[in-house]
Amino acid sequence: MTAVFRPRRSALYMPGSNARALEKARTLDVDCLILDLEDAVVPDAKALARTQIVDAVTAGGYGGREVVIRINGLDTPWGEDDLVAAVKAGPDAILVPKVNTPADLQRIAHKLSVCGASPDLNLWAMMETPEAMLNAGAIGACGKDPQVRLSCLVMGTNDLAKETRARLVPGRAVMVPWLMTCVAAARAGGVDILDGVYNAFQDEDGFVAECAQGAEMGMDGKTLIHPKQIGPCHAAFSPSEEEVAWARRINAEFDKPENADKGAIQVDGKMVERLHAEMGRRAIAIADAIAARG
Ligand code: COA
Ligand code: MG
């Protein structure tokens, strides 16, 4: 099985009840779309949103964008129907809200195999409860279990603030321990992780600062609520031309036969180890995937 590299710099949420947004999504330059049935949809609109999402995903036209459906929890009146409908529509992934323990994901994964979901269908997990922060390592470790098919963690900072009573403050100092714990959990489990949303979508400076912070933390990308956030988000999470050129250069040096048995070499007056070449391969893969998309 060849793993196809997918950049996940940006993931735009849109309420499934908003037909215009679902349509508009086909033209937006975004890596992932999260079609929401959960927090962004009021109870009276749940059924309409489900129908609209199934119709939109079945109709397709989303090109290379990764299409993700966020379902309601199985402990709500809508969760089971959402799951069945999502499987029928065939998105790239199902995003599970309010995951507390690995068992929450295992239960959904089991239902997916029972209802004959495509093996290519992945699970994404919202990390947004106090329990999830305490169980982050175990949840991330589901990435190592092919039966659970976990491929991405998504920080739900609004719910996390609500449930813990921590405040959403500029700079997010109070959230950093949880954010970094989840980055470690994602890396240990071999899955991607996306940062939480920035609610004040008209505040571009604040958003740019938070994107930079997420990128520094090692997040793979950020969840978004408005199309105007896509450009600055990509600027923060795309490798720069210099970074990609340097990565290609050091990989080319290590590929030379005379360097085959060397762990460290000199390139342009700097010491470079094989771990740098390996780190650079991710930047190259992202750049190539973006270029291939055209
Ligand atoms: N996805 C796709 N298109 C979107 C969008 C989104 N999340 N948010 C806005 N748009 C579109 C609008 O439909 C509008 O399109 P148009 O000009 O072609 O009609 C355009 O972008 C400009 O929208 P704007 O008027 O600035 O915002 P709004 O008042 O229509 O919507 C929100 C503001 C916050 C309600 C909306 O952005 C939204 O619903 N965001 C997602 C919320 C969500 O899913 N939350 C759950 C996870 S945190
Ligand atoms: Mg939430």
How would you explain this protein's 3D organization?
It is a single chain. The chain has 294 residues and is of the alpha/beta class. The protein has two domains: 10-237, Phosphoenolpyruvate-binding domains (TIM Barrel); 241-293, no CATH class. Helix content is 45%, strand content 16%. The protein contains twelve helices and ten strands. Helix 2 (46-59) runs parallel beside helix 3 (79-89), helix 9 (204-217) runs parallel beside helix 10 and helix 11 (241-255) packs across helix 12. The model has no long low-confidence stretch (mean pLDDT 96). Bound molecules: coenzyme A (COA) and magnesium ion. Coenzyme A binds next to strand 1 and helix 1.
Average of per-residue pLDDT values: 96
What is the annotated CATH architecture of the largest domain?
Alpha-Beta Barrel
Anisotropy-based shape: globular
Q: What is the domain total for the residues?
A: 2
Tell me the fraction of residues in β-strands, as a range: 15-25%
Bound small molecules, by name, code or SMILES, are: coenzyme A, magnesium ion
Rg value: 20 Å
CATH class of the largest domain: Alpha Beta
